[in-house]
């Protein structure tokens, strides 16, 4: 058997074919809208069968109806009993999981001195605990089949640097934890062909950033702090996602790929 990342696999794959996901099964959390919806479309476009999951059933079902080979699974990752559900449903529907995109997340924008301990825990549960449980559940299937896989944790540049002007102690703590969880899981599983990496976007137009990027003042604030002088557009994450999901990144694990227009370059 040829594991992903082996010299034999590299010899067999053409550069273009390395980015394909034909025959692969992927799970994308937080897929009902925004970046998660875009991620699902990109993976399907590369040949994957995809399980999309989120709380909003109507939007999920609409997306699944548009994308061939896609299954909608309603799950609320603020509930511990739902944490394993998307991966288990993927295995039930398709017999395997090859790619996990931990995209679901929540924020809480208020000064730390006013942030309640309960809300802090709630954000960490969705943004850090749920991705760990999902990754662990996916890894068990990948290890049992001994065919490798790719786990992509969607972090944020706010997990790498502080901002202050956008007070989000719980969110930044959760994303910083996700970055280092990625390193640890990659260290534990990479010898068995499971790659674990982080994708850390900067400020992209999405439902979560609507308040910030919804007017000129917010857009200008981001532009002034980004070396490319603008915020990101959803399609500008497509290549990074496909790179990490596919054999194109067969020798990449434990890494955090920032796609931020130069925000962290300053």
Strand and helix layout:
Layout: H1 7-12, E1 25-29, H2 34-45, E2 49-54, H3 57-66, E3 70-74, H4 85-94, E4 99-102, H5 117-145, E5 149-154, H6 169-189, E6 194-201, H7 210-213, H8 216-224, H9 238-245, E7 256-259
Parallel strand pairs: 1-2, 1-4, 2-3, 4-5, 5-6, 6-7
What does this structure look like?
The structure is a single chain. The protein is an alpha/beta fold and 266 residues long. It has a single domain, classed as NAD(P)-binding Rossmann-like Domain (Rossmann fold). It has nine helices and seven strands; from the N terminus they run H-E-H-E-H-E-H-E-H-E-H-E-H-H-H-E. It has helices at residues 7-12, 34-45, 57-66, 85-94, 117-145, 169-189, 210-213, 216-224, 238-245, and strands at residues 25-29, 49-54, 70-74, 99-102, 149-154, 194-201, 256-259. The chain starts with 6 loop residues before the first helix and ends in a 7-residue tail after the last strand. The mean pLDDT is 92.
């Amino acid at each position: 058997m040829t594991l992903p990342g082996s010299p034999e696999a590299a010899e067999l794959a053409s550069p273009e074919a390395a980015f394909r996901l034909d025959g692969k099964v992927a799970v994308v959390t937080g897929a009902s809208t925004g970046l998660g919806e875009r991620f699902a479309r990109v993976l399907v476009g590369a040949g994957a069968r995809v399980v999309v999951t989120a709380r909003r059933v109507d939007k999920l079902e609409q997306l699944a109806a548009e994308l061939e080979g896609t299954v909608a699974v309603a799950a609320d990752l603020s509930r511990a009993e739902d944490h394993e559900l998307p991966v288990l449903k993927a295995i039930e529907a398709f017999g395997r999981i090859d790619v996990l995109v931990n995209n679901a997340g929540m924020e809480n924008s208020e000064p730390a001195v006013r942030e309640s301990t309960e809300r802090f825990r709630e954000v960490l549960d969705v943004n850090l605990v749920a991705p760990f449980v999902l990754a662990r559940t996916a890894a068990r299937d990948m290890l049992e089949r001994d065919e490798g896989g790719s786990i992509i944790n969607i972090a944020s540049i706010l997990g790498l640097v502080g901002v202050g002007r956008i007070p989000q102690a719980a969110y930044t703590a959760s994303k910083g934890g996700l970055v280092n969880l990625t390193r640890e899981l990659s260290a534990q599983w990479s010898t068995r062909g499971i790659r674990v990496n982080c994708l850390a976007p900067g400020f992209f137009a999405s439902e979560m950033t609507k308040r910030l990027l919804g007017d000129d003042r917010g857009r200008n604030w981001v532009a002034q702090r980004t070396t490319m002088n603008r915020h990101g557009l959803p399609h500008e994450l497509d290549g990074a996602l496909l790179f990490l999901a596919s054999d194109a990144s067969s020798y990449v694990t434990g890494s955090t790929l920032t796609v931020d227009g130069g925000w962290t370059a300053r």
